[in-house]
Amino acid sequence: MEFQDRHIVITGGTGALGAAVVGLLLDAGAICHIPVRDLKDSRRFAHRGHDRVVLAPVPDLTDEAAVAAFYAALPGLWASIHVAGGFAMAPIGGTDKAMLQQQLDTNLVSAFLCCRAAVQAIGQGGGRIVNVAARPALEWRQGAGMTAYTASKAALAALTVALAQEVAGQGILVNAVAPSTMDTPANRAAMPKADHDVWPKVEEVAATILHLASPANQVARGAIVPVYGRA
User: Fold this and answer.
1) Superfamily of domain 7-227
2) Whole-structure pTM value
3) Measuring CA to CA, which residue among 97, 116, 90, 96 is closest to residue 9?
4) Is 149 a catalytic site residue?
């Protein structure tokens, strides 16, 4: 159990992918720290009440002071996994500055602040950071009709690679996964005619995240790993 008693942050930990990550981490013995907007919002969270799950109210992951305070209060941190994000689909003519800024805040700024705080919390002892990008972050043409989302996720991918180079000397390995559309109830409802069988399962994407976040990963850094399934 390579995560035994290791402290891990998972943003977006109560969502579909985040909950799958938390479940695997708990099976591996980790102590999971999950920032949530409101503790009431996590009532249906499958792992609520687990003795190794710590839910902490952080209303806004783009609030620099709140994010810094959350990380500063943690015990010795091993890894920070940033699943929190948002999606917006609209042609550029229907995308105003407010929507662009919202996507940048949700997908880039939140991850940047968490990465920054995680590097400080991990310190010189070594650890792992994993971000969640998206297929359009690597394949820009896939982002037609969702340019604000694509730009924000591409920026997150660039942040991941640059930071990986910056902190490698501290023993902190920084990577990201780039999922295609994942097989979730929400995505099935939104795209009922799609071939759901080719979509990657959240448990499969979560398993890739766990490897990148684990002590077993001794060499991968600066990678944006495609997790597309057969899509």
Assistant:
1) NAD(P)-binding Rossmann-like Domain (3.40.50.720)
2) 0.96
3) 116
4) yes
